[in-house]
Amino acid sequence: MTTTPSTGRRHGITEQAADAAVDQACRLLRLPSIRTQFSAIADTATREQMSYQAFLAELLMTECDDRARRRSERRIRAAGFPRDKSLRAFDFDANPKLVNELVEAADDNVLAKTIARYGRADLLCIDELGYMELDRRGTELLFQVLTEREEKNSVTIASNDSYSGWTKTFTDPRLCAAIVDRLTFGGHIIETGTDSYRLAHTRANKG
């Protein structure tokens, strides 16, 4: 007599039974995020016609992201900080653009103090450089900040334009060349291409 081992598959299972099985399996495997968000992710996968691999990846990444978040929250609680501060609670609308603040500081005769403050920061991040045109005065003030930080502290710049396109932001050619020189000397340049990373990621997820 020959016995065929069971593969463990459930044939003809109803949707209600499948949901119950997923819930039970997630409890057994300790996957709370998948258990609570499975239905919503499944609905999205159906609506966006995601592939099986993309659907599985979405489930697993949801669990991984939530575990990372909970781990971070546990570490913050264990650290015993006197106040709870995070980027989620940061009011970005109350944070001026750098050049505007420099112009106001110059008008208020506190420019040297403001430049020194930006010079002391361990890392200065300037995002979306290239979206707005700066006049000569704004460009000169930004150049002073970069000069203050040169070879002392780090600066990261994010821009959708190549260096040749920065002349649209820094309309003075000599100042533009000087700023590019300050930023590229001893720096690391990461080119991500001209296509939107977010758009490419979204298309890839839709399979």
Look at the structure and give the mean pLDDT: 81
Compute the number of strand runs. Answer: 2
Quaternary state reads single chain
Beta percentage is 5-15%
Shape: elongated
What string, H for helix and E for strand, traces the elements in order?
HHHHHEHEHH
- Alpha-carbon distance between the two ends: 46 Å
Short description:
With 207 residues, this protein is mainly alpha-helical. It is 55% helix and 6% strand.
Write the layout of secondary structure elements.
Blueprint lengths: L14 H15 L2 H16 L4 H28 L18 H10 L3 H10 L2 E7 L6 H14 L4 E6 L13 H12 L12 H9 L2
Parallel strand pairs: 1-2
Could you describe the 3D structure shown?
The protein is mainly α. The chain is 55% helix and 6% strand. The protein has 8 helices and 2 strands; from the N terminus they run αααααβαβαα. The chain has helices spanning 15-29, 32-47, 52-79, 98-107, 111-120, 136-149, 173-184, 197-205, and strands spanning 123-129, 154-159. A two-stranded parallel ribbon has the order 1-2. α4 packs antiparallel against α5 (111-120), α5 packs across α6 (136-149) and α6 runs parallel beside α7. It starts with 14 loop residues before the first helix and ends with a helix. The model is unreliable at 1-7 (pLDDT under 50).
